[in-house]
Amino acid sequence: MPAVVRGAPAGAKPRAKASAKPAGGKLRRGPAPYAPGKIGASHGISPKVAFSAAAIVVATGLVVTFATGGRGQALVGAASRSLDARVAGLGFKVKQVRLEGVSAPAEADVRRALGDVDKSSILALDLNQIRAQVEQVGWVKSARVIRLLPDTLLIRAVERPRLAVWQRQGVVNVVDADGRVIPEAAAGQFTDLPLVVGDGANVAAGATLPLLESRPHLMQQIEALVRVDGRRWDLRLRDGSLIQLPAEHEDQALIELDQMEREQRILELGFARVDLRVPDAPAVRPRGKDEVAPGALALTAGGIG
Predict the structure, then answer these.
(1) What whole-number distance in Å separates Cα of residue 266 and Cα of residue 217?
(2) End-of-domain residue from the set 133, 159, 185
(3) What's the confidence (pLDDT) of residue 232?
(4) Element of type H or E holding 223
(5) 172 and 300 belong to one structural domain
(6) Do residues 167 and 262 both lie within one domain?
(7) Is 289 domain-assigned?
(8) Is 276 a domain residue?
(9) What is the mean pLDDT of each run of 10 residues along the chain (305 residues)?
(10) Would residue 50 count as lying in a domain?
(11) Which residues are within 8 A (CB) of 138 and not within 5 positions of it... i.e. 6 or more apart?
(12) Are 193 and 293 contained in the same domain?
């Protein structure tokens, strides 16, 4: 007897049983349920960083909002001081200022120019500003400022070479090789420097002094270099003698003087005046006698004529 299918109309094909998996082997899912995202997750930013950035934006907005009547500047200044104090509290406060290339006479002036750097955190210092302050000191030609963590500030300075003491109209100053006055230098402390006198002597000395310093026997007898008419030098010796140099070719004139010294020992014997203004015709005025015309007592290889 044929089997009877219950509940199915006659002639209908039986339904195929639903398969658990589709033909491709993957399960089909419906729409995913809604889930709130995390701040910053889409760009890999942690929530802590994101909230910090938001706080900075809010703080900036407050500064802009209240930036009237100096309130914005006051807020920024207060925040900066607070940060400075906190950084200093972590051990980054300036505890030592080291000076290199600074002489003993200049040290006090350089430290004075630094101000209160020892009261600041080393990370908050403006190194360019400090360098500018140091280079304002007359002793200093150039400076470099270096931050040595955690607590040392290094100042490397190049001082202006002290060339001479310059006397003009009763005022005495120390000058460097370019003739620039070093205002902080007390002339009385540099008695070892040569004395130059007169208008323009400070600038002209840079070319003449090296010629004289290469002749130590002459240099140690010079009391002062006197600038005459802004053109040439008179060398005044300690015994009252006078050597007149020409306006040009000073080196050649000094070579003539060297020859006199070798042959006649003129610096040891003494004289009132040696006139070297006429090339190849030096004239000597003996001490205690009337001055003679140039060439009248010209020194030659054979002696005094």
Answers:
(1) 12
(2) 159
(3) 98
(4) strand 222-228
(5) yes
(6) yes
(7) yes
(8) yes
(9) 46 49 48 44 40 42 42 44 49 89 96 90 94 97 96 96 96 97 96 97 97 96 97 96 96 96 89 94 81 38 31
(10) yes
(11) 109, 160, 180, 181, 182, 183, 184, 185
(12) yes
Of the candidates 259, 263, 265, 296, which has an alpha carbon nearest to the alpha carbon of residue 281?
296
Which amino acid belongs to residue 129?
A: Q
What is the amino acid identity at position 151? Answer: D
**Residues 223 and 253 sit within 8 Å (Cβ to Cβ):** no
Please enumerate in sequence order all residues whose Cβ is within 8 A of that of 294, keeping only pairs 6 or more positions apart, or say none: 275, 277, 278, 281, 283
- CA–CA dist 197, 144 (Å, integer): 35
Residue 33 lies in a domain: no
| Domain C-terminal end among 90, 116, 148 | 90
Burial of 114-148, coded b for 16+ CB within 10 Å and e otherwise, reads beebeebbbbbbeeeebbebbeebbbbbebebebe
Q: Are residues 67 and 117 in the same domain?
A: no
Domain count for the chain = 3
Q: How many whole angstroms separate alpha carbon 161 and alpha carbon 283?
A: 36
- Global pTM reads 0.64
Residue 210 host element (H or E): helix 201-213
Beta strands in 44-203 (DSSP E): 96-100, 140-148, 152-159, 162-168, 171-176, 195-197
CATH number, position 151 = 3.10.20.310
Which range marks the domain in which residue 76 is found? 45-90
Residues 125 and 188 in one domain: no
Half-sphere exposure in the Cβ direction for 189 (13 Å, CA): 10
